[in-house]
Amino acid sequence: MGLGYGGGARTEATVNAIVIYESLTGNTKKAADFIVNELVAGGVQAVACPTTAVDYQALADADLVIVGSWTDGLFLFGQKPASAGRLSQLPFLTGKKAAVYCTYAIETGKTLTKLEDIIRDRGAEVIGGMAIRRNKLQEGSAEFVSRLLGVVAA
Ligand SMILES: Cc1cc2nc3c(=O)[nH]c(=O)nc-3n(C[C@H](O)[C@H](O)[C@H](O)COP(=O)(O)O)c2cc1C
User: Fold this and answer.
1) More exposed terminus of the chain, fewer Cβ within 10 Å: N or C?
2) CATH topology of domain 16-153
3) pTM as predicted
4) Which of 30, 52, 70 has the most ligand 1 atoms within 8 A of CB, as the residue to mutate?
């Protein structure tokens, strides 16, 4: 797997990524779109789709699967990834690297860890996760991708 555009002949295959998100009021979708833009700017082919309309071809082609959900809880406790049931029914991700993110307002509690567990149960190797505050979607998404590219390129 290679990252970026060398400018000359490309000797390594491009990384393919898919962002699958669960979003009620649009924040997690917006983050998914920011993440895709950042990935593409970093030389990674990427598409985003909701959990309700997974792009199965893109998923099959993906080396890196990013799964995002929003924090559902009682704001200060009881937080969990929204629609965990739907996330746990994603296709098997065996052999793929995965990363997770959640959007939130105040406090995420164990949302990220729970999301990581769900995705690990689908067979993926989870390489990281990040909580992105809903009033910092663009900055958070950029930081998330910059960390991810560091890990994927290593
Ligand atoms: C029913 C409900 C419960 C929520 N619980 C929490 C919570 O416990 N902690 C938190 O920080 N944000 C909580 N939020 C805020 C959302 O996680 C946040 O607005 C998120 O970005 C929404 O994503 P979406 O726009 O993609 O649906 C809650 C929102 C809703 C609607």
Assistant:
1) C
2) Rossmann fold (3.40.50)
3) 0.92
4) 70
